[in-house]
Write a structure and sequence with these properties.
Elements: H1 13-16, H2 20-26, E1 30-33, H3 50-60, E2 69-74, E3 76-80, E4 89-92, H4 93-100, E5 104-108, E6 113-117, E7 123-125, H5 135-140, E8 144-148, H6 155-160
Length: 162
Amino acid sequence: TDDWGVTPAELSFWSTAPRRRQLADMADYLVLMAYDEHNRFRPDGPVASPQWVEENLRYLLRFADPHEIVIGLNFYGRIWDPDELDKPRAVGLGSLVDLASGGEATFDPETGLDRVELSDGRHLWLETPEGLRFDLIDEYGLAGWAAWRLGFDSAAIWEAVP
């Protein structure tokens, strides 16, 4: 988005280089990667907080028509070790939910998700199959959805698909 600060700065071309209007004019569909809000370069947060996903979708809608956009959703979350924030572990949402059940959850108002402290000192943001933003497809009239990635899916994810 206009106020997105890319970290590290030398990777800013990933967010700033594409001319979105020109891409939309040339392509039948654009797939918005609405995940990886936090990763090894931007550590310690959720893969796709609900507000961040919608903000990025609204930004793309400035350049492309809704029926041309496929929203990419995360079938995974990350476990963070405070001693190795540059090496988060990606796990499927089903496994993340199972792991979180053994931790202590506190609501994080900044992300709109529960942050869960695990007994071994690691933590995660509780992203769930039910929290995937399938609702945005109908709300904004999008072409559909895609996901990263098969293998991280679970029965609960497929039950959440509208």
